[in-house]
Write a sequence for this structure.
């Protein structure tokens, strides 16, 4: 049965070719001093940085580059210092989910006198946030239109998700052309990430029939256009579909009245906290093995996934055979486009699986299908 819910998403989505032209107008509502936050420097190589500088030539620009693929609380701390020292009015995150996630912590950490990590571990509840916007350069996490964030703390060895209604971006500019130069492996990771977000919401106890249809269609659409974008990176239609799909996959519009599982994400966060691997790679490895593990917990749901999404034929097969084929078909699709399927492929040591399981179980694992520490270890072992 569909649960009661309230839905509100305040982020203004600005989608399409050339929409960077609206940047100055959007930021001018908040002030003149802007902190530009970005990652490893690809925006300087592909020309996006220069475009932004041109659009914001009437503003005072401060910069923080070098946000990591698994963004660190230490980087957020540096940005908070810059903001406080220079009385910054607005933050502009230019990049993918890592940059945006880090910016979310920066925005609320600015108004907290304690350590920003307190916010991630829920020791402090934010009451105010510095406004920020997004220029998206990677279709993957959906962070450009939600209030969630994932941050890594190297000192504690943790990678944790957190959120606040204060950290919705004020606006997000999505120009598909900005994803033309994304490396193949990052495009693959984005496809996996988007599909995983949809599947985490699909595996729930409430089973909203309307959202089931939306999610099934969205995943099949990504599976159609993902390979097209990989074959021809400058295909505008394919890049547009992937970009919008990634945003919709995690802007809370597909979990109305349901509670998704998110067990795969919790396990993957533990893996990448220990090994600092790309999130999409970890998801590609863990999720098919997670589906195989929960198969007997909810055979009917896994069968729906196999038939309605993966297109598994039902003739002369048991429900269990159909469900298992679905999980293996997902794994095969991700392998075909270039994602890893085993932990050993990404240099995870078998001897560290106990450590990863112990770290993962520090949080509850699985809302729809709760997992014990032993089950988490068995999934990791199967994925090895």
């Amino acid at each position: 049965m569909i649960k009661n819910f309230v839905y509100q998403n305040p982020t203004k989505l600005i989608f399409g070719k050339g929409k960077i032209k609206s940047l100055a107008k959007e930021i001018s509502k908040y002030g003149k001093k802007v902190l530009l936050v970005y990652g490893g420097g690809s925006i300087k190589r592909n020309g996006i940085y220069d475009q932004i500088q041109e659009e914001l030539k009437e503003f005072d620009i401060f910069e923080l580059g070098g946000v990591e693929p698994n963004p660190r609380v230490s980087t957020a701390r540096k940005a908070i210092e810059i903001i406080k020292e220079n009385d910054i009015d607005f933050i502009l995150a230019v990049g993918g989910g890592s940059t945006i996630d880090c910016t979310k912590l920066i925005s609320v950490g600015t108004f907290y006198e304690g350590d920003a990590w307190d916010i991630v571990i829920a020791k402090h509840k934010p009451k105010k946030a510095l406004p920020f916007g997004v220029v998206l350069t990677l279709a993957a996490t959906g962070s450009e239109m939600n209030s969630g964030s994932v941050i890594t703390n190297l000192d504690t060895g943790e990678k944790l998700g957190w959120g606040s209604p204060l950290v919705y971006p004020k606006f997000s500019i999505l120009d598909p052309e900005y994803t033309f130069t994304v490396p193949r492996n990052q495009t693959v990771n984005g496809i996996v990430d988007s599909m995983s977000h949809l599947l985490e919401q699909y595996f729930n106890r409430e089973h909203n029939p309307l959202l089931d249809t939306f999610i099934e269609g969205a995943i099949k659409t990504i599976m159609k256009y993902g390979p097209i974008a990989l074959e021809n990176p400058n295909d505008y239609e394919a890049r547009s579909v992937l970009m919008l799909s990634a945003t919709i996959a995690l802007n809370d519009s597909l979990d109305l009245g349901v509670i998704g599982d998110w067990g795969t994400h919790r396990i993957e966060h533990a893996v990448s906290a220990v090994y600092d691997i790309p999130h999409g790679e970890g998801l590609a490895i863990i999720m098919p093995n997670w589906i195989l593990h929960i198969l007997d917990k909810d055979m009917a749901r896994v069968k729906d996934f196999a038939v309605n999404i993966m297109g598994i034929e039902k003739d002369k097969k048991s429900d269990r055979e159909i469900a298992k084929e679905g999980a293996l078909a997902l794994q095969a699709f991700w392998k075909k486009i270039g994602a890893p399927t085993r932990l050993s492929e990404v240099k995870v040591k078998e001897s560290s699986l106990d450590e990863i399981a112990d770290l993962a179980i520090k949080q509850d694992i699985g809302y729809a299908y709760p997992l014990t520490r032993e089950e988490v270890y068995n999934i990791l072992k199967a994925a090895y």
The mean pLDDT is 97. Residues 209-231 form the longest helix (23 residues). The first strand starts at residue 12 and ends at 15. Residues 24 and 55 are 6 Å apart (CA to CA).
